[in-house]
Design brief:
The structure is a single chain. This protein has one helix and ten strands; from the N terminus they run αββββββββββ. By secondary structure, the chain is an alpha+beta fold. It has one domain: Sandwich (Jelly Rolls).
Length: 162
């Protein structure tokens, strides 16, 4: 138990350092602004299954620096095991977000997170998602560039030839 508490403390310290780093880098846009729900622009993202959508809210996820994106995944869609090089903070906006940790998809490892939940995912952690009970929307906060690497290349939608 003591070892687990120590690991949790290290994880939260690492996240704290990332937040400090974001603050040190500053926001990409230095003026006050807001984005209303009805103005969010959803687009396909080549690294997602074709039904999933991504919306860029703040920053440019292709470049170094802070970014905020939203991910919308319709009912039944699975994102097979993958990693992201960047540390991420997920906030569940709507629906139930099912995420499992591991290198192989295993429905028994999924945990359900309802709206309002915040999930901390350290970089390079193998994980998978399933829109098991319906569509979900998550908001991802991180420091770019955004990356996604499927553990099995045949699971990567970018490798599917039409």
């Amino acid at each position: 138990m003591k070892k687990l508490n120590y690991l949790i403390a290290i994880l939260f310290f690492a996240i704290f350092l990332n937040v400090v780093n974001v603050l040190a880098q500053g926001l990409p846009n230095k003026s006050f602004g807001a984005i209303y729900q009805e103005n969010i622009k959803w687009s396909p993202f080549p690294a997602f299954p074709p039904q999933a959508r991504l919306a860029i809210l703040v920053g440019n996820p292709k470049e170094p620096g802070p970014y905020v994106v939203r991910v919308k995944v319709p009912a039944g869609v699975i994102l097979m095991p993958h990693t992201h090089p960047e540390d991420r903070i997920y906030t569940v906006i709507s629906g139930v977000f099912y995420i499992g940790i591991g290198t192989k998809f295993d429905a028994s490892k999924l945990k359900a997170y309802p709206p309002g939940s915040v999930i901390v995912l350290p970089g390079n952690t193998p994980h998978f998602h399933w829109a098991k009970s319906g569509e979900y929307v998550t908001q991802v906060t991180a420091i770019g560039p955004l990356g996604i690497n499927y553990l099995n290349p045949s699971d990567d939608p970018r490798n599917i030839k039409e």
